Predict the 3D structure of the following.
Amino acid sequence: MTNSKRTKPQVKEIRPLGKLGMFRVQALDLTFANGQEREYFRLAAKRDAVTVVAVDGNDLLLIEEFAGGTLEYELGFVRGAIDEGETYLQAGGRELAEEAGYEASSLTHLTTMYNSTGYQTAKMYVVVATGLSALAQRPEGDEPEPLEIVRWPLTKLDELLTHPRFRDSRNLVALYAFRDYYHQYMQS
């Protein structure tokens, strides 16, 4: 159980410290109910994002993309920022087209998460895309190079959890949410 009667700290000031790519770096001056004062830091995102678990027949469609954090090509789900005026479902459809070259007849919300509640403001919506059709031409996205599509059998979901190049926490959360959804609603 959570204690919902706690008094939240008073935010005395939010100070901009600069920009870091798509984030604004901020310092928060806080005073807690017990009088303690602290300075917290956060990355304030300009936009929320979406992760798309794409199901094509008996396979998941993963992408292989270079990751600046590991300096390696990593496996993961289609994902990207939600553009101004888009819903997360519209953004999911757009990202699926741009990154994988598919459209979906159905996009279903699985869960919403934060990458890190301790220092980030952006929400990540996770959706499952089904009823996929390959597009005649992939729309241009913002990737610096073409992304490789990797098919992963639905019968091997648990093996994907331990794959050495599938290690981004957002992908892991999305896979856990999808695995539960798959066993409850899609597997019959």
About this structure: The chain has two domains: 10-43, 49-186. The CA atoms of residues 29 and 130 lie 45 Å apart. The chain has a mean pLDDT of 90. Helices lie at 88-100, 157-161, 169-186.
